[in-house]
Amino acid sequence: MSDEDGYFGESVAARYDESSAGMFTPDAVDPAVDLLARLAGGGRALEFGVGTGRIALPLAGRGVPVHGIDMSRAMTARLSAKPGGDTVGVTIGDFATTRAPGSFAVAYLVFNTINNLTTQDAQVDCFRNAAGHLEPGGCFVVEVGVPELRLLPPGQTAVPFGIGPAEWAFDTYDTATQAMSSHYVTVRDGRAEHSSIPFRYVWPAELDLMARIAGMRLRDRWEGWSGEPFTHESRRHVSVWEKPAD
Ligand SMILES: C[S@@+](CC[C@H](N)C(=O)[O-])C[C@H]1O[C@@H](n2cnc3c(N)ncnc32)[C@H](O)[C@@H]1O
User: Fold this and answer.
1) What residue numbers bound the domain in which 174 lies?
2) CB count, 10 Å around CB of 95?
3) Residues with beta carbon inside 6 Å of ligand 1?
4) Three-state SS for 197?
5) Could you report the per-residue pLDDT of 26-71, keeping only the tens digit for each?
6) What DSSP element (H or E) covers 136?
7) rRNA processing: is it a keyword of this entry (predicted)?
8) Rounded to whole angstroms, how far apart are CA atoms 112 and 62?
């Protein structure tokens, strides 16, 4: 890990928006903001792993009061420096355990960021932490990929996802522990550099159990933010769990 900012330190933060440009387009952002604004329903929203504000800023722009938790000062400094950044409160810490002030109508965790918690215990803690922030009747929303184990033939542990003339990217899987890592090998001036980031992949049904442990129930599961049906072919899901109303 690079520094106390975790895997999203200064060098990653400096190029995050550019390297994730496809996720900043209106097509990617607007449906998420629409749904989250609807779920907030006039109340407050809490983003776990708020980053540079890709979702938090447009959501705040709709008039929803938004607060974020993130361990990376480098990422959140970019958020705060953007227009409207001063309207989004930030608490620095681990979103599995850190408490933000107040209670919220909706908490959300997007862009596969639940996978950044590399143990099952930490993922369970994250659900408990979300539930602890929610008002009765509030919702926790997670956007995450369905584990791509169907791409792994027996005996194989790596799946390439980006092959170029000077860049190779691949995921490695340990199906015994659900640990996975994304690896990036870049060749510059004849020298190869390797970087990697660890994740824990997690199944939709496993998330439902985590939600139950935290006292929440599945309310909706879609393939995407616009309510597309979730099927056996879906490669990701947007799931909404509800904390019971008192
Ligand atoms: C892939 S980025 C997503 C940022 C933003 N949500 C977005 O959609 O663009 C993941 C963010 O989560 C933060 N993060 C990862 N693990 C974390 C943890 N355990 N606690 C707090 N922040 C974490 C990183 O610092 C980073 O800002």
Assistant:
1) 149-198
2) 27
3) 6, 8, 49-51, 54-55, 69-72, 75, 94-96, 110-111, 113, 116-117
4) strand
5) 999 999 999 999 999 999 999 999 999 999 999 999 999 999 999 9
6) strand 134-145
7) no
8) 24
Q: Which residue's CA is the closest to the ligand 1 atom numbered 25?
A: 72
Q: Whose CA is nearest to atom 11 of ligand 1?
A: 49
Q: Cα separation of 134 and 81, whole Å?
A: 28
Task: State pLDDT tens for residues 79-101.
Answer: 999 999 999 999 999 999 999 99
Distances (CA, A) of 168 to 116, 150, 160, 172: 21, 21, 8, 13
209 and 126 housed in the same domain:
yes
Largest CA distance in the chain: 63
Instruction: Establish if 209 belongs to a structural domain.
Output: yes
Query: How many domains does one find in the chain?
Result: 2
Q: What is the pTM of this model?
A: 0.96
